[in-house]
Amino acid sequence: MKLIATVSICLLLGINIFGQSDAVYFTRINEPNEKALSLLVPKGWIIGGGAIRILDPNSAGANNMVDCKFDLSVKNDPKGSVMIRWLPEILCIDQSNAWGNPEGAVFNNTLVRRKRDPVAFMAQVAIPYAHPNASMVNITAKKQLPGLVSLYSSTVDPSVKMVTNMVYYAAMIEFNYKEDNRLYSERMVTVIEDYGINGGGLWKNRQTMFIRTPQGEMVKWEPLLLVIQNSGIWNLKWITAEVNGQRQRSGLIAATQKELQEMDNAINESRRKTSYEINKDMFLTLTGQNEYRNPHTGNVERDTDKWKYRWVNAGGEIIYSDKEAYDPNHDPLLNVSGFKKSVPRK
To answer: pTM of the full predicted structure?
Structure first.
């Protein structure tokens, strides 16, 4: 587990957010199941799923009961016509090491699943899981992601890597499909963590996520999806409970406050670097970012420069606008207060 909320009032009124609308309003919403993290979501959008606890060892093996899983989506309507979604990370054992057990069985406390490269995993496992009713699936592009591989490889403890021969593979695919009589375009990315020849056939999917829109509308929706992707903030209280819970389930002693703070810092830094690498490839038409000074905290925040003006409040909500004279605090459609302009640092 390595570790993001709603569309503007203007959207709710049917105004084109990429035209002359006054504002695009993102509000921060907690992941609903355990409040493990919060996301910026366009106002009116829906957060679905969230934290998952595997409680039955017969479903995916006891090894997958140790840590919390996430199946989390942010979507513009109940069907997810426009959506960003993160899929669960599952520890598996290659079928060749499972002594004849079929795929989907549990062997040695781990789910049996044939080891796949990233593209095959997405095509054969992730897409059927995320879109069981999809038809006419057509993969139109494949891309290896060496930057993401290097990032994951650099985080492995040298002693662990030496013992397990841990290696990583990462890729992105673009594809079209039909679901519920509607055509969609989607981009999906995943990392495969392979424990190597000394790892007993163990492997795991990491950072499996996708963005989708109605076919032909990907460029239109990328700016909003990018904001969501970059917005995750983990709850330190939840991290503390989760880390200590994992240690108890693994028979280890509880983490100290110093360890927890170091973990929190490491998680946030890892999320920042991973998001940057994914953004370079997932959001193909978006390269512009800038650094902004938050007037409430004084912190410097990296964000999209798709819009000319950025307003924030003390709760971390954001409003974007392209109009120089616009002030969200005086917008009768929004009925908000406490927003201050966040200006570029340079």
So the answer is: 0.88
